[in-house]
């Protein structure tokens, strides 16, 4: 058979196009069991369809750009709210969650900072289905299948989850209550110390990192009330003070790394301390003391 004619005829055969780690979703999640928890999910995408006249299902350039942009717009740097979660109530911009252990979290933020889902609990599987429904309309007509897979970065050792908001950030990081799942590494006198990193990570599961100047008050129930106004709107959060770390400056990853290094320098006097803190996947800051 003429090979060119064969390729043209073969265009009717469906096949899959995949993009691994097309994007990362960094978000906060309200959860009846866990309270406010920072999450980072990697996203793989598989498209199923038939080749067009260029021999492609969907040019990687626009495919990656358009799908990532839509996922970012829908959930990245937002607080994900499962509207049927036990203990959750919503009045306008105000959300309140009483967790399974009786702690109460109050949150207020503009519509652009949250994503509401008709669910009791936010899971990667639920988000895969929800995002798939929203993304279908973007796809060219030669594509009839879309499969998203959300999963956590494989981190063999220490990692923690936190939420925060960077009031002065000109992008979506200004949204209070978005979060991350991050690895952390510690060296003392140039020796890797996974045991110390693990101890630190164990204390930082599900924390909120705030800035002192955004801490308006602490109430009689022991909750910190953070509040600020950023370009996207007014944000407020009331949450158990025991789940908060309050920094002198903005909760950037540089300041987080420096905070951990400072604490470790106090408990390891005379030693060289290095902390490698991540923010989500593949990026972060290294802070050193005692050099
Ligand atoms: N030097 C720093 N820059 C930024 C910090 C920081 O701590 N130090 N933090 C942020 C935000 O908190 C944000 O959560 C991280 O943003 P990023 O992952 O870059 O977000 P994007 O969605 O824009 O990037 P993608 O590559 O699309 O995931 C911002 N900057």
How would you characterize this protein structure?
By secondary structure, the chain is of the alpha+beta class. It has two domains: 1-152, Tetrahydropterin Synthase, Chain A (2-Layer Sandwich); 165-291, Tetrahydropterin Synthase, Chain A. Helix content is 21%, strand content 43%. The protein has five helices and 18 strands. It has helices spanning 3-10, 60-75, 124-135, 194-203, 253-267; strands at 15-31, 35-49, 79-82, 88-91, 94-98, 104-108, 114-117, 143-151, 159-164, 178-188, 191-192, 205-211, 215-218, 223-230, 233-240, 244-247, 273-278, 284-289. Strands 9, 10, 11, 12, 16, 17 and 18 form a seven-stranded mixed β-sheet that branches. A six-stranded antiparallel β-sheet has the order 4-5-6-15-14-13, with no helix packed on it. Strand 13 (215-218) and strand 14 (223-230) form a beta hairpin. The protein is globular, with a radius of gyration of 22 Å. The chain binds the ligand Nc1nc2c(c(=O)[nH]1)N=C([C@H](O)[C@H](O)COP(=O)(O)OP(=O)(O)OP(=O)(O)O)CN2. Pathway: Purine metabolism; 7-cyano-7-deazaguanine biosynthesis. Belongs to the PTPS family. QueD subfamily. It is an enzyme of class 4 (lyase). This is 6-carboxy-5,6,7,8-tetrahydropterin synthase.
């Amino acid at each position: 058979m003429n090979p060119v004619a064969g390729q043209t005829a073969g265009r009717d055969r469906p096949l899959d196009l995949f993009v691994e780690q097309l994007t990362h979703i960094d978000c906060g999640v309200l959860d009846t069991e866990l309270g406010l928890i920072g999450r980072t999910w990697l996203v793989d995408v598989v498209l199923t369809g038939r080749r067009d006249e260029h021999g492609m299902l969907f040019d990687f350039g626009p495919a990656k750009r358009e799908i990532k942009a839509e996922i970012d717009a829908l959930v990245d740097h937002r607080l994900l709210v499962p509207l049927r979660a036990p203990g959750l109530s919503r009045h306008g911009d105000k959300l309140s969650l009483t967790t399974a252990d009786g702690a109460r979290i109050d949150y207020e933020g503009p519509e652009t900072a949250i994503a509401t889902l008709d669910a009791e609990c936010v899971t990667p599987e639920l988000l895969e289905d929800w995002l798939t429904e929203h993304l279908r309309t973007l796809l060219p007509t030669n594509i009839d299948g879309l499969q998203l897979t959300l999963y956590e970065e494989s981190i063999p050792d220490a990692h923690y989850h936190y939420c925060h908001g960077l009031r002065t950030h000109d992008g979506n990081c200004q949204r209070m209550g978005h979060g991350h799942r991050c690895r952390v590494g510690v060296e003392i006198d140039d020796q890797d110390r996974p045991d110390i990193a693990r101890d630190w990570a164990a204390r930082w599961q599900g924390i909120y990192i705030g800035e002192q100047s955004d801490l308006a008050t602490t109430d009689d129930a022991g909750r910190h009330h953070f509040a600020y106004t950023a370009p996207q709107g007014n944000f407020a959060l009331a949450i158990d003070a025991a789940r908060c770390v309050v920094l002198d400056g903005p909760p950037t990853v540089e300041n987080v790394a420096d905070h951990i290094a400072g604490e470790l320098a106090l408990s390891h006097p005379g030693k060289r301390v290095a902390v490698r803190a991540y923010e989500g996947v593949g990026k972060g800051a290294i802070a050193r003391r005692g050099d």
